[in-house]
Design a protein that fits this description.
The protein is mainly α. It is built from 2 helices and no strands.
């Protein structure tokens, strides 16, 4: 039996998806009581934001290849 991959076309840019995920995680963290679960949720939100910024930076036209 051959497994078939679920192929879906992404509608939004990666940066937008990461920013939306970060916003959702921050909202979840706001509702959680102080503790390790809240800190973990905030850490994931920061990782999403950093990933979005890195992706924007890598796609920027000012980025030059090494010489």
């Amino acid at each position: 039996m051959i497994k078939r991959r679920n192929r879906s076309k992404q509608i939004d840019d990666l940066e937008l998806r990461l920013e939306n995920e970060a916003a959702q995680l921050r909202e979840q963290a706001r509702l959680l009581p102080p503790g390790s679960l809240r800190e973990e949720t905030l850490r994931k939100a920061r990782q999403c934001e950093i990933g979005a910024h890195m992706s924007e930076w890598l796609r920027s036209p000012g980025l030059q290849p090494p010489r």
